[in-house]
Structures are given as structure tokens and as C-alpha cells.
């Protein structure tokens, strides 16, 4: 609701602003919540405008209300009493929503995967004369829940967005669209105007598809132990790509030109039959496609029966059959990271994008702040990305023919980075197994050849450190990122790439596990204190802990071997490598050995992993001794 209300409060002419909410679950509770939110917005919007309230997300505003002062001509006391009134309305809004939820708790009449389309122009329930009297025009709020049937593939978020594109195409058909995930809100009400500065710039406008703002988050702790900020994207890569043809579409927080989802920048008009093949058979939708005709006033009001029928058709699950939605038009279906692949397609088609990162975050979201969510999300991302990497759309081939080579390399770097898991897993096992067996695989410390290895190792660390520091972050961030990179590479990237290979050869269907949106108090406390929380699946824990135990064992055996038998010269590099890995993954050791709280690594997992690493060691040693 906060996403919706903060978007309605954007500083933009109300008549030109339409807020659509996509409810993929098709829940009557959400629809009811929307009506309540609309009622609340009737109070909230005028209040924000009158007193120049900067934080227009109600939840955030009331959380930090002491710091947020109203400006304008009105006296403090008037502001205070108005604020109090609005706060009461906010409390009432929350109460009514939770009451409604309680009343309908047992309702099992609807399921998230099987429901008809529902499209409603939300009007609110309470007609309050006082508010009505002072009523300035409000942005329209439209609830859209596309049809879902178990027999149809729904293409996750991209499918939902395409349904929104079609429905909004016959209701408002605005040429520019802001896309926000349900866990984000507008933090600066001027973002629309700022984005329009780019879109309306005659030097950029022709080929400009989207203005991307970074994803920033309101719930990240000082230490950011899980690298939830994903700094390397929004503080390094996106800036680099901005110097080429622009950053990758990042799923949320961007203003996109509707037309760019329909055709190439150079493409001229096509005939009706061709359009129907691309966009489906809705005449109403095609009529408005190129904005020559805006939806008329009466359709706009949203209550004509014909319009209702049309929107239901456009949001039905059979509508896309035989069309090019998701393949040539709209958001792309090929990969679960629809954002990456849609951005890639746009750039291949000749569109450009712009990255804009003003000091005040324009949008704030909820980041994944526990290991479990992080790894689930990481698995989905690496599965989606590597699927593109190993397909015919591999950016190095498909992309390099359609965009500047450097740009295609950027895309390739992202699509292929999950495959880093292969070398990482080798680095975490082979030198260690050799070390235990006293086999040296690196040059001796005394040989000058060692310089080459040291140079590569240290320069890659320095490059990373430089990126972190140059983007205004600390050495602590560097350490966190290294650690999370190791953890992800041996867990979610492994599963992600396996998943991608399996879907590619048809052994699995793609899936989209949404990130958890509910907080656990104890977990949050640990997170704030910078303590890892290992409450996650054994599938994630076991590989990670196994590798740490293997490194511990090899380090101890290696050092003992050198002390008793000598040979430190040859084995030095391997000992250093094990030490480096152990130092970086210290929280895992701590979770295994030292901690007793709920977030520790369970004993059973440690025992299992110890067996696994022993097995790995024996197997490896057996192989080496052959
Ligand atoms: O079947 C689905 C699944 C998801 N969503 C929506 O997709 C959005 C993102 O889902 P979330 O669970 O928050 O995933 P995240 O991993 O946090 O999302 C990141 O990764 C996605 C790609 O995997 C991008 O689309 C997002 O913009 C990006 O923030 C949410 O608004 C969901 O409502 C749907 O509408 N239908
Ligand atoms: Mn999210």
C-alpha cells in the first residue's frame, strides 16, 4: 500500500498520473486494501502538497515524523493539528485493513494460481463530504489482477507486466511508465520530473528507452554483511555502462518509454494484420498503440461495459496465444531475470538508457537481509543469467552483432559470472587436497616465477579494493563483498548454473521463488549487530561448511607437515591460499564452533559436512595417488 500511496503522491499533474497495481495473487484482500488506500490518499495527498512534505511514503513519514518538518505559510499549530488528523486517518486505514483481513481469514474461495481477471478503477469506500469539498483532482488508481489458470504458463513478473501494459494501454496509454516492485516506495516526489528531463532532452530523446535509478534500500545495516546493497552493480558497473549505451534495465526504479517496448527506434508503422500478429487481436489496444488516439473520455472513466470487457480480454491468460508478447514485444519471457533480458533486447534493438543516481535516493526498497533470502534470490538470478549465457542469446555472439562490442562484453560479464563457481570450487579444493598429500602445485617461493602468481592474485584484489574505495565505501565493504562472493559462488551460483543447464536441456521448468517479505525480529537483531544468520537450507549450508572444514584440515595438516617434514618453500602458496580462504570465511568457522544462538550452524550440518569433506579428501587423495 505504501508503494501505491507514495506513487500517487508523486509531484506530477494528477490528471496525467495513473497508478496501476498488479496483484498476481488476485487476492480480494489486496483489492480491499487498495480501496482503503485510496480513501487514505484523499487525506494524504492534499496534506503532502499543502505542507510540502518530503517523505511521501506514509509508513516512512510516520516513522521519522520528528525530523520531517512542514514548510509553507501555515502556522506550526495548524500543521500540527493537520498532521495529527492525517495520522489518525492512517491508523484508521491500518485498522480497517487488518480488521478486514481478520474477518476473511478463513476464506479459501480464491487461490493465487487459479482465478479470473479482475480490473477495477478504485474509487474508495468512504465518501467523506469534508474531503470531497476540498478535493483536488486525484491520480487514478487501477487494480489489475490478470487471469491465472494452472494449465497456463504465466511467465512470472514479465507476464504480469505485459498484462499491465495492455490494460493500461486502453485506459490511460501514458507514453512514460514508472515501474516499481511491491517492496519499493517513492522517496523523492520529484523523480518523475527529473526523469522527464532526460526523456524530453532533444539530444537523447529519439533513442532513449529508459532512465534507470539505482535500487537503494531502507533496511540495510551499517555493516551490510550480506552485501545487500549489491554495490558492484549500482556503484560500479552501471556507471561504466552509462558511458556506453546505458545501464541494464534493473527490474524496478526506472521510467521507461512505452513505445520502446513495442518497436525499434527506427521502425516505421506496420499494417494492421502484422500488428495483430505481434500484439494480439484487441482492436482497442492496437488503436491506441502509437498514441495517435488517446483513450476517449468515457472509456477513461473506466465504467463503460465495453471497456470492462476489453480489459478483461487483455488480462486473460489466453490472450497472448499466437502473439509475440514476451518474444518480440513487451517484457521478455526467455529468462527469469526478465529485467536483464528485456534490457539486453532493448539495447540490441538500438535503444539506449541513462543511469541517474542523485544524492537523495529517489526510491527505497526492502533488501534481502538474511542469508537464506540472499541465497534463494542469488540462485534465481544466477539461474536466469547463466541461462542467457549458454543460449543462442549469449551476449558475446548475439549481442556483439547488434551493439558495441564493449557493451556486449558488459552483458556477457553479467551473464557468465555465475560460471565463476567452477574455478572457485576448484580453488577451494584442489590445492588443499594436494597440500594434505604434500604435492606442490605452485612455484617455490624462492623462484622468481612466483611473482607472476602473486601479481595476478594481488592485482585482482587491488582492483576490487580500488572499485570499492572509489565508490566511497570502506575496506570493510571490500571484505564483506569478498566473503559473500565466496559463499555465493560455492552455493547459489552452483545451483543456479545447474538449474540453468537443466532448464536448457528441458529437464526442468523455470521457477521464480519470490523473496520473503516478512521480517523475523531475532534475525533482524543479529543482522543489525553484523552477525551472520545461518538459518537456511542444508543444501546451502553443507557445501559451504564442507569447503571450510576441508580448508581448515588442509591448513592444519599443511602447517604440521612443513614443521615436521620441511618443504615450506614449495607448499607456501597453498598454505597461504587456505589461510586466505579461512580468514575470509571466519564467520562460518565462528558459526560452526563458537556460537550457541539460534543463528549458528546446526551441529548436524557440521557433522555431515565433516564427513563430506573427509570423503572429498579421501577421494581426491585416492585420485592423486593413482
Ligand atoms: O510471479 C511473479 C513473481 C514476482 N512478481 C513481482 O516481481 C517483483 C519482484 O519480486 P521479488 O520477490 O521482490 O524479487 P527480488 O529478487 O527482490 O527482485 C529482483 O529481481 C527480479 C528478477 O529476478 C527483478 O524483477 C526485480 O526488479 C528485482 O528487484 C515483485 O514486485 C513481485 O510482486 C510478480 O508479479 N509475479
Ligand atoms: Mn524484491
TrEMBL record:
Active-site positions on this chain: 24, 339
Residues reported to bind UDP-alpha-D-glucose: 24
Main localization (coarse): membrane
Membrane spanning stretches: 410-433, 439-458, 538-559, 571-593, 605-625
Keyword Ligase part of the UniProt annotation: no
GO MF annotations in UniProt: cellulose synthase (UDP-forming) activity
Topology versus the membrane: Multi-pass membrane protein
GO terms classed as biological process: cell wall organization; cellulose biosynthetic process
GO cellular component terms, semicolon-separated: endomembrane system; membrane
SUPFAM superfamilies for the chain: Nucleotide-diphospho-sugar transferases
Residues engaged in binding Mn(2+): 157, 181
Region (Disordered): 97-118
Subcellular location: Endomembrane system
Matching Gene3D superfamilies: Spore Coat Polysaccharide Biosynthesis Protein SpsA, Chain A
Alphabetical UniProt keywords: Cell wall biogenesis/degradation, Glycosyltransferase, Membrane, Transferase, Transmembrane, Transmembrane helix
Listed name of the protein: Cellulose synthase-like protein G2 isoform X3
Primary gene name: LOC115743318
Amino acid at each position: 500500500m505504501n508503494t501505491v500511496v507514495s506513487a500517487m503522491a508523486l509531484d506530477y499533474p494528477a490528471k496525467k498520473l495513473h497508478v496501476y497495481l498488479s496483484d498476481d495473487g488476485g487476492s480480494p484482500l489486496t483489492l480491499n486494501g487498495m480501496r482503503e488506500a485510496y480513501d487514505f490518499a484523499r487525506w494524504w495527498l492534499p496534506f503532502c502538497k499543502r505542507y510540502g512534505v518530503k517523505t511521501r511514503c506514509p509508513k516512512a513519514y510516520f516513522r521519522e515524523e520528528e525530523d520531517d518538518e512542514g514548510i509553507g505559510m501555515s502556522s506550526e499549530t495548524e500543521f500540527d493539528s493537520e498532521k495529527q488528523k492525517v495520522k489518525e486517518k492512517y491508523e484508521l486505514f491500518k485498522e480497517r485493513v487488518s480488521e478486514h483481513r481478520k474477518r476473511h481469514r478463513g476464506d479459501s474461495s480464491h487461490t493465487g494460481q487459479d482465478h479470473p481477471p479482475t480490473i477495477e478503477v478504485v474509487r474508495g469506500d468512504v465518501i467523506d463530504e469534508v474531503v470531497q469539498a476540498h478535493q483536488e483532482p486525484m491520480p487514478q488508481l487501477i487494480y489489475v489482477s490478470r487471469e491465472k489458470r494452472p494449465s497456463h504458463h504465466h511467465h512470472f513478473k514479465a507476464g504480469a507486466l505485459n498484462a499491465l501494459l495492455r490494460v493500461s494501454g486502453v485506459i490511460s496509454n501514458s507514453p512514460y511508465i514508472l515501474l516499481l516492485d511491491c517492496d519499493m516506495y517513492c522517496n523523492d516526489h520529484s523523480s518523475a520530473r527529473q526523469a522527464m528531463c532526460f526523456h524530453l532532452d532533444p539530444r537523447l530523446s529519439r533513442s532513449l528507452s529508459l532512465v534507470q535509478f539505482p535500487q537503494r534500500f531502507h533496511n540495510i545495516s551499517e555493516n551490510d554483511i550480506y552485501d545487500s546493497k549489491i554495490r558492484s552493480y549500482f556503484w560500479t558497473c552501471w556507471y561504466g555502462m552509462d558511458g556506453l549505451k546505458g545501464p541494464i534495465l534493473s527490474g524496478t526504479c526506472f521510467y521507461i518509454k512505452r513505445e520502446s517496448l513495442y518497436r525499434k527506434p527506427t521502425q516505421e508503422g506496420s499494417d494492421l494484420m502484422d500488428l495483430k500478429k505481434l500484439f494480439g487481436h484487441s482492436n482497442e489496444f492496437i488503436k491506441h498503440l502509437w498514441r495517435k488516439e488517446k483513450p476517449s473520455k468515457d472509456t477513461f472513466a473506466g465504467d463503460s461495459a465495453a471497456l470492462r470487457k476489453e480489459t478483461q480480454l487483455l488480462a486473460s491468460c489466453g490472450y497472448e496465444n499466437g502473439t509475440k508478447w514476451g518474444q518480440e514485444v513487451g517484457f521478455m519471457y526467455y529468462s527469469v531475470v526478465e529485467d536483464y533480458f528485456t534490457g539486453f533486447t532493448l539495447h540490441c534493438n538500438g535503444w539506449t538508457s541513462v543511469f541517474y543516481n542523485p544524492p537523495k535516493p529517489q526510491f527505497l526498497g526492502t533488501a534481502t537481509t538474511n542469508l537464506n533470502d540472499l541465497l534463494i534470490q542469488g540462485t534465481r538470478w544466477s539461474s536466469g543469467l547463466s541461462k542467457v549465457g549458454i543460449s543462442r542469446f549469449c551476449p558475446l555472439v548475439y549481442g556483439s552483432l547488434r551493439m558495441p562490442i564493449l557493451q556486449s562484453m558488459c552483458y556477457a560479464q553479467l551473464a557468465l559470472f555465475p560460471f565463476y563457481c567452477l574455478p572457485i570450487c576448484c580453488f577451494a579444493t584442489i590445492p588443499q587436497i594436494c597440500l594434505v598429500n604434500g604435492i606442490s602445485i605452485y612455484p617455490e617461493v624462492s623462484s622468481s616465477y612466483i611473482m607472476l602468481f602473486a601479481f595476478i592474485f594481488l592485482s585482482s584484489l587491488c582492483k576490487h579494493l580500488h572499485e570499492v574505495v572509489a565508490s566511497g565505501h570502506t575496506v570493510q565493504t571490500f571484505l564483506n563483498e569478498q566473503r559473500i562472493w565466496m559463499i555465493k559462488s560455492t552455493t547459489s551460483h552452483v545451483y543456479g548454473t545447474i538449474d540453468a543447464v537443466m532448464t536448457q536441456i528441458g529437464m526442468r521448468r523455470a521457477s521464480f521463488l519470490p523473496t520473503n517479505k516478512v521480517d523475523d525480529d531475532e534475525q533482524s537483531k543479529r543482522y543489525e549487530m553484523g552477525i551472520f544468520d545461518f538459518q537456511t537450507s542444508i543444501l546451502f549450508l553443507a557445501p559451504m561448511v564442507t569447503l571450510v572444514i576441508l580448508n581448515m584440515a588442509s591448513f592444519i595438516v599443511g602447517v604440521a607437515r612443513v614443521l615436521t617434514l620441511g618443504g615450506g618453500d614449495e607448499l607456501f602458496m597453498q598454505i597461504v591460499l587456505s589461510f586466505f580462504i579461512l580468514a575470509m570465511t571466519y564467520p562460518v568457522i565462528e558459526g560452526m564452533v563458537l556460537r550457541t544462538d539460534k543463528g549458528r550452524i546446526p551441529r548436524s550440518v557440521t557433522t555431515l559436512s565433516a564427513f563430506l569433506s573427509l570423503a572429498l579428501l579421501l577421494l581426491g587423495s585416492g585420485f592423486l595417488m593413482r
